[in-house]
Specification:
single chain; Immunoglobulin-like; seven-stranded mixed sheet; 3% helix; 37% strand; binds CU-O-CU linkage; binds copper (II) ion
């Protein structure tokens, strides 16, 4: 399998490879993006698998090794929750209590984080809530989130500097092997909306991931001649998996269909749309419904972001179309030349969609409105005059000039406060910035109001090259002066090498 080990580059003190240097294409893979007009005939479509749904107040998850045919005719050694690859979709009801038993049978230290969930720091599953091999972690919490699509994944921090990205105990490594799953929260708001809600039928989870493989089918984390001082230290590939299958097909009815899209890729940004360029409607962002469906023909989705969209197939019976990523025209707007692979600037297909007859109980219209979102007033922030700064810099690599240190609390926040955070990106590469603890709202991008589909609840915001993004966040409900929450870039290799920091929410005067 992977020849590079934790020791291979440990101690290398160079700045994050590729961010400043140039690179050559050293991938052992021969890969040319498909011309979207000419699907690869060697790939026979197989049906989109729908992850099993887990409901109830007690949820058991076992992290374990397995193997799976991710690409046709090759078996890939993988890891998964309760299975070979990915994990079940957890259905949580807002206002109820949930307890989880997470068993680590993957043989290395790990954690499991409830991404986007508003939970106490000790239950968050960040790098400090380690689960040693053979152990069971038993968090429990009341579900306080709004109805939306969240997810779970390992979040260990190996802390070996540059070498950490090769470590089997790193987040990027473990997620790449398959450890991730979706969480769907429902509440009174979602109950009342006339939206498609039959899981797997008209309410479809789509977990997007890109992978590279060795010839024998094993996952290729990095090419064997990978040199972190020269090559982009990112796990990206030209095999695109949806729910763990390359180029699957989905049969839908001639009706309105809801797609819950999760970008669970380590580093890939998708610019989603359909092969016929149709308009679709975004109804939810990371942490809740939008005010009203937002018509779009392209949807940019960076690592860890979620979007729920409605697609009206009502007059499409008998047709086929594709969910496609239109990356051809992105140029260097998000990923600069030395870090690009072929698919950062090519269009590629993710999913074939075939439209059959409408099912019974079909939803046939797109609702005009969804919910009310009360904007968090900027004036509510205790630090409006001097927003808390987060600079995502490449040299030195990290946030505010520091790399993640498990023993350092970077920020202390007072329970009950509302704060404005100002995230700046002086690099030529876009960074998806994520904050644990609870959703936030985006105030401005470079001083301007963000687009309509970013005016809801978010927990990841893509900060483009040379951009400044201001967010506003409430720190409510949970205080713990010892156990921190994380903030970090959700490009997992960036997080692993230290583009991450920690904050605590404290009760009482700071
Ligand atoms: Cu998706 Cu800190 O995580
Ligand atoms: Cu998170
Ligand atoms: Cu980053």
């Amino acid at each position: 399998m992977l020849r590079l080990t934790a020791g291979a580059a440990a101690g290398a003190a160079l700045p994050m490879a590729g961010l400043t240097g140039c690179s050559s294409d050293s991938s052992t893979e021969t890969a040319t993006p498909l011309d979207p007009a000419e699907p690869d005939p060697s790939i026979t479509p197989i049906p989109l698998p729908i992850p099993e749904m887990l409901v109830g107040s007690v949820i058991n998850l076992e992290m374990r090794p397995g193997q799976r045919e991710l690409i046709r005719d090759k078996m890939t050694p993988t890891k998964g929750y309760n299975g070979d690859y990915l994990g079940p979709t957890l259905f949580l009801r807002s206002g109820t209590d949930v307890s989880l038993n997470v068993t680590n049978n993957i043989g290395v230290s790990t954690t499991t984080h409830w991404h986007g969930m508003h939970v106490p720091a000790l239950m968050d599953g960040g790098p400090h809530q380690r689960i040693e091999p053979g152990d069971v972690w038993t968090p429990s919490f009341p579900v306080l989130n709004r109805a939306a699509t969240y997810w779970y994944h390992p979040h260990p921090h190996a802390g070996l500097g540059q070498g950490v990205i090769f470590d089997p105990m790193s987040t990027g490594y473990q997620v790449y092997e398959g450890l991730a799953g979706m969480i769907i929260v429902e509440d009174g708001t979602s109950d009342a909306l006339p939206l498609p809600r039959t899981y797997g039928e008209d309410d479809i989870p789509l977990i997007l991931q890109d992978r590279r493989f060795h010839d024998d089918g094993a996952l290729l984390h990095f090419p064997t001649d990978f040199d972190p001082t020269r090559d982009p230290a990112l796990r990206k590939g030209g095999h695109f998996l949806v729910n763990g299958v390359e180029a699957p097909f989905l049969e839908v009815g001639a009706q309105v269909v809801r797609l819950r899209i999760l970008n669970a890729s380590n580093a890939r940004i998708y610019n989603l749309g359909f092969s016929d360029d149709r308009t679709f409607f975004q109804v939810a962002s990371d942490g809740g419904f939008l005010r009203a469906p937002v018509p779009l023909s392209r949807l940019l989705l960076s690592p860890a972001e979620r979007a729920e969209i409605l697609v009206d197939f009502g007059s499409d019976q008998g047709t086929t179309l594709k969910l496609r990523s239109f990356n051809r025209n992105l140029g260097t707007s998000l990923v600069p030349f030395p870090l690009q692979d072929a698919w950062d600037t090519a269009d590629f297909d993710l999913l074939d969609i075939t439209v059959g007859p409408a099912r019974s109980n079909a939803v046939l219209t797109i609702p005009a409105g969804l919910t009310t979102i009360d904007p968090i007033p900027e004036a509510e922030a205790v630090n409006l005059a001097s927003a808390r700064p987060f600079e995502l810099a490449a040299n030195p690599f990290g946030i505010n000039g520091k790399r993640m240190d498990m023993n350092v609390i970077d920020d202390r926040i007072r329970l009950g406060d509302t704060e404005v955070w100002e995230i700046t990106n002086p690099t030529t590469q876009a960074h998806p910035f994520h904050v644990h603890g609870d959703s936030f709202q985006v105030l401005t991008r470079n001083g301007f109001t963000p687009p309509e589909n970013e005016l809801g609840w978010k927990d990841v915001v893509l900060v483009r090259p040379f951009e400044t993004v201001r967010i506003v966040k409430r720190f409510h409900d949970y205080a713990d002066s010892v156990n921190p929450y994380m903030f970090h870039c959700h490009i997992l290799e960036h997080e692993d090498v230290g583009m991450m920091g920690q904050f605590v929410v404290e009760d009482g005067a700071p």
